[in-house]
Amino acid sequence: MKICVQRCSYGSVLCDGVKREIQHGFVVFVGFTKNDTLEQITYLAKKVVNLRIFPDANGVMNQSLLDVGGSILSISQFTLYADTKKGNRPSYQQALNSEEAQKLYRLWNDEIRKYVPLEIGFFGEDMKVEIHNEGPTTILLER
């Protein structure tokens, strides 16, 4: 599993005229590969919501999403598994097939929903994503 977390003051995803958005929190891109498990999903979901990357009263990144009452915009992103070792055209062989990835994505979103408000991107669709990244702060997680 690979995850890209971007701290934001605004995030949205648009597909076929339908828009989903958050005002304050994380835009989280998540990709799956073979052998990903529910244990990994649970571990990384807890890790994400507890990441202390929001500033405290002293301007130090010391507060979590839970501390600031933020939400998550979750977007499935198989291209996190792009491999360009053999040229300029990425290979996605390490990305999990669509059917299995969609199952894990549902589990991921169910786990996140236990902790914070959640908006979900459009699985397998061409989306327009808008992010007002604060900082900018971008954290990559893998398990």
Helix and strand topology:
Blueprint: E1 2-15, E2 18-22, E3 25-31, H1 38-50, E4 54-55, E5 61-63, H2 65-68, E6 71-76, H3 98-113, E7 118-120, E8 128-142
Parallel strand pairs: 3-6, 6-7
Antiparallel strand pairs: 1-2, 1-3, 1-8, 4-5
Helix pairs in contact: 1-3
User: How many E strands?
Assistant: 8
What is the molecular shape?
globular
Largest sheet: 6 strands, mixed
Show unreliable segments: none
Helix content: 10-25%
What is the arithmetic mean of pLDDT?
96
So how many helices? Answer: 3
User: What gyration radius follows from the Cα positions, in whole Å?
Assistant: 15 Å
- Which class do the helix and strand fractions yield? alpha/beta
Task: Spell the H/E element sequence.
Answer: EEEHEEHEHEE
Approximately how much beta-strand content do the residues carry?
35-45%
Q: Kindly, what is the distance between the CA atoms of the first and last residues, rounded to a whole number of angstroms?
A: 6 Å
Structure write-up:
- Helix content is about 25%, strand content about 40%.
- The chain is globular, with a radius of gyration of 15 Å.
- Helix 1 crosses helix 3.
- By secondary structure, it is an alpha/beta fold.
- The termini are close together.
- Strands 1, 2, 3, 6, 7 and 8 form a six-stranded mixed beta sheet that branches. A two-stranded antiparallel sheet has the order 4-5.
- The protein contains three helices and eight strands; from the N terminus they run βββαββαβαββ.
